[in-house]
């Protein structure tokens, strides 16, 4: 039985790794090779020539930079805005607090996909189509992040706040000196999930961007692929170049990513 | 915190303002704007004429709409149960003590960080006839006889299999981690006590592990149904909705109606139909979560 488990586990791992290994191996083959059996993919000669060609002859690196830039800015501002709002909803007494909370909660029920057509019209009216602002700003309000961070602020006892107040600290100081440090892990988790979400966001860039200098990766890749459909090498090089930065990020932040996802599940 | 009422309100407003401004402009306002659009013949250059309830009447009788909704539903039905089983299986594998434990954890998750475009094109090439990875491997092991090919992308049933397999591979990672962290929270003593009572591995799985995973599995199931209903990109790349629109999901139809057929008003009306369906699912999810609120922790 133990052997069965072991072999089964290894087969699953191979199935999961196979497409990625294949992608990397094909990407370092020479173009125009004859493939008769699957083993032919793995035989030499190898060459990085196509990597050079794609990196210098296309806008792929440009699009990777766009994707990273958009994802970083969206992440920073989403988490910041959500922390500010979550703090107000959790710790500041004000009129209409319950109403505001329900307004945010309602946002969880609104699927972005269902409002994408009017969003296009609104962005058009505001001249946000085909711009970095248009890629970034509409993505900055995340009701999920507000609700999750609010519940973490809820966990901090009010007595602690009052002690800062007695020392003469204002609300802003309480927020920056006490609340933010105490909820750092939650903030990091939201940041990672927001980053992955933005990195993978397809529908909005697809509709709102037509200038290929502003493409993000999910849009740039199909554009490139449509030019190279006969051979496998160029497409796999494009895939490999696009995946390597995010896989490196994953390896660096693996622990935080796993923690972040576990946390989102608890709140799910 | 005590303050004069007016000042407290102002202060809270300042904290809420950045979020509320974006939320209002790009979530709430489009939602209301969309209602207006559904009552017009509304095109990309915005030449519009009021047509009353025509869009609504049309959408309810539109065979293409119901077919596309049906395709999205098929996708949900294909992928959700397999997703749950796969996710729990992978979590069990990665939870067992072994020298490969760290490797398992990484390899099951890594596909999830790939861009949707990369994952979809990998799928497209992996399922290609003649030279694709899957058919080549099937030939190598003699499962697929020499000279015959499976046309994954041009036969409706096979296309659904290819799309589903690719999606499972690409997205199981998140659910896998949720299940794994839930498994790790099951107290070890319970297993020890069961072992003392003579329970075997299978009994412990069915009587301890699975019941402990029930709350998170319920959450995952609902989130998965909602997410799968919104499928678009991988199908768009792998089959383009074909053959003969037989795999076209609702989001693709909305996109094509709005931007290819230049009928934003009608597309908006379709998206409200989708909205209603997703709303019912979300409310159901909330209700399920809160009814058993305690065991979701």
TL;DR?
The complex is a heterodimer of chains A (268) and B (297). Chain A is mostly helical and 268 residues long.
Give a description of the structure:
Chain A: Keywords: Cell membrane, Membrane, Transmembrane, Transmembrane helix, Transport. Chain A: This is Sugar ABC transporter permease. Chain A: It holds the Pfam family BPD_transp_1. Chain A: Its main location: membrane. The complex is a heterodimer of chains A (268) and B (297). Chain A is an all-alpha fold and 268 residues long. Chain A has 2 domains: 1-46, no CATH class; 48-264, MetI-like fold (Orthogonal Bundle). Chain A contains 13 helices and no strands. Chain A has helices at residues 2-27, 49-57, 60-91, 97-107, 116-125, 132-136, 143-154, 158-166, 171-182, 184-200, 203-208, 217-225, 233-267. Chain B is mainly alpha-helical and 297 residues long. Chain B has helices spanning 5-37, 54-61, 63-95, 101-109, 116-126, 133-140, 156-184, 188-196, 201-229, 233-238, 250-260, 264-291; strands at residues 40-41, 49-50. Chain B is globular.
